[in-house]
What we know:
With 443 residues, the protein is α/β, with parallel strands linked by helices. Helices cover 30% and strands 22% of the residues. Helix 2 (163-173) runs parallel beside helix 3.
Amino acid sequence: MSDLPPTGPPPPPSSGGGPEGSRPVAGNGPGPGDQRGPMTSPRPAPGPAGPAGPVGWYSGPVPFNGLVARESIGRAVGKTVAKSLAAVATLGIGLLAMVLLLVATVATLNGAGAPTEALPTSFVAGDEGNPNKLLAIPVTGVILGENEDQGGLFSSLLAATYGYDVKENLEEAATRSDIKGIILEMDTPGGTIFGSRAIADAVTAYQERTGRPVVAFVRGMSASGGMYAMAGADHIVADHGTLIGSIGVIFGPFTRYENVIATEGGLLGGGVQTTGGITEEYITAGRSKDIGNPYRGLNVEERTVLQAGVDNNYTTFVDHVATGRSIEAAVIRDRLGALIYDEQSARANGLIDQVGNRDEAYAKAAEMADLAVGNWQVARLEQAGSGLFGLGATLGGLTGRTPGSSGTGGATGTDAAVDPRRYLCQRGPTMLAYFGQLPASCS
């Protein structure tokens, strides 16, 4: 008989030493399937009686209260697979969220999202938060007309300023009562004529519409198209060690293979073999505009037609600078030519008004806007490509500050998607208001 009262239906009779199906509790007897028959070892002494009685044999349902039935292998494997799938799904959702965040960030940086402000700016100098703003607009790198391509993640590696974007920025600024004046921050070798002219026209329109001042500050170089763009400013300040001028137009290059005797193809490209060499020639207006050009060839008719086009653009350029800077056109043509000048020489020749640093240029702009000392701030128009992926790179042959090269910077008001060398090197002969050796820039 069992030492514990049965809790379920009585077991069937058994010929064994204990009830059939009974199990030892706490290791006190044989387990299921044990063939040794009745226990031969003495039972342990009953423990203290309690609500359930003393410890001993249990003949109730299996498993008894407090034990858990062992899982089958199939069920264990199923649970493991389910947990693994859940972990993979969680990881996948996390990665997807990161990708979506990255895409949203890139889209925002590339201007794909709707802008929250027409003229996004960042504080530069003065009294931060002051309601009287002087808007600084960077004009850096090669000046192009407008951005034709909307580039991707790394589209701003080679940047430029787009003249029509600057024009739109100035039109928007003219509607803002908190913007008391404009500062054009110049660091450019020039570029296309129509891009430079777009900035020049926008400056004039802003002055006429608002009566507010436009100050140009040269912080590295303002040559050729840069001079075209800033000539109509109310005041021009050039920092120390800057270069200003190069008033001229250049058209080319025209490449000539003299006495070709063989051409060669191949996997890595071909070549041309000549007995007379290879030359490149530019058509220019403005004395010494093609200074440093190592090449020179064109027949008389071609030269006459092309020279006429260059002369027409040169005349317009000269007249614009003459009017904006109050310099006789003859002085520009005969004495200044297309040479580039240091800041002291530029001032002596009337190309600029003042030699000074950035703080002096900002203070002058505030003075011309009739703002009290300290009662203003300079807010710079944010350039596309700044921030997480904005590398603002100065790569290729468009770096440096010496003749034959130029600096680059971020585009203003749009994504800097177009490689400026496409306009200088890959479109065939191009008429430019540009300073530098194009062969060096295109190599």
